[in-house]
Write a structure and sequence with these properties.
Blueprint: E1 2-11, H1 18-29, E2 40-48, H2 52-67, E3 73-81
Antiparallel strand pairs: 1-2, 1-3
């Protein structure tokens, strides 16, 4: 069965986010006030698996081995059956 995984990668609290800081400053120069700006990455992965839990396990392994840096990143995984 096909599943679509949505993986959101964010930096752990306390990590520097230079891209977010740059966007925050640019917004201020344009006249927009903001408390903070954080960046994140979103991956959509379509894969074959026997079940939703098996798909989530595979994607978790992908994150641990390649997609996320466990030292600075945290990630969340959502699985949906592909129609």
């Amino acid at each position: 069965m096909q599943y679509q995984a949505t993986v959101k990668i964010e930096q752990k609290p306390g990590m520097l986010d230079p891209e977010g800081t740059t966007v925050k400053r640019a917004l201020e120069h344009l006249g927009y006030a903001s408390e903070s700006v954080k960046t994140a990455k979103l991956f959509e992965i379509v894969l074959e698996a026997e079940s939703a839990s098996a798909a989530k396990q595979q994607v978790d392994e992908m994150c641990q081995k390649l997609i996320a840096n466990p030292i600075v990143d945290k990630y969340s995984i959502e699985i949906e059956e592909k129609k």
